[in-house]
Write a structure and sequence with these properties.
17 strands, five-stranded mixed beta sheet, single chain, 181 residues, Immunoglobulin-like, 3 domains
Length: 181
């Protein structure tokens, strides 16, 4: 809040490197150093560093610690006196202090304490598998396959989108007829 003197904006009064305060209508004009947030660190709700990634359909409970102008670090805040915001709601949503995965990409989340907003913390959001592509050794797409007794066929499986985990488990319904390796 700016301070005005004779209708002109004035800065904080400094004398000998110390900020002197004034009262207006019973309130301090400038916040005290013990009340002035200078940085906010986003953590999980236990005060530990954020994970590097969030799994498909995953959630994460957030916390934040504010550092004040006098050098002290405040208590861990999870819901009271802190607001968490997702910068891209198509990737993740925030409700209270719960971050919820919506789509693969990069999650950017900020925390606001006493009007001070943190730098965005970045978390990688996993991509959900949407489909698979099966090809033979020559790269020809395979929709179905028929083999004779004793024949083998090597297939390549790719999960789409390519950013999604490429892990899969091949299965055969009737192992007396065919097997996978």
């Amino acid at each position: 809040m700016p301070a005005l003197y004779a209708g002109k904006r004035v800065g904080k009064p400094l004398m000998g490197g110390h900020t002197y305060n004034a009262m207006f209508n019973g309130k301090l004009v400038w916040p005290l150093d013990k009340d002035t947030v200078v940085s906010v660190n986003i953590t999980d709700d236990k005060g530990k560093p954020l994970p590097k990634s969030l799994a498909v359909s995953g959630t994460l409970k957030l916390g934040a610690k504010a550092t004040y102008a006098d050098g002290h670090v405040g208590d861990l805040l999870t819901t009271k006196d802190v607001t968490f915001t997702s910068r891209d709601t198509s990737t993740a949503m925030v409700s209270g202090n719960t971050l919820t995965w919506r789509h693969g990409g990069t999650i950017l989340v900020t925390a606001t304490v006493n009007g001070f907003t943190s730098a965005a913390a970045s978390i990688s959001a996993a991509y959900a598998p949407e489909s698979i592509k099966v090809t033979d050794d020559s790269g020809k797409t395979i929709d179905n396959i028929t083999l004779r007794v004793g024949e083998e066929k090597y297939l390549k499986v790719r999960v789409l989108p390519t950013e999604a985990s490429q892990e899969f488990t091949p299965t055969v319904k009737d192992r007396t007829i065919a097997t996978t390796a």
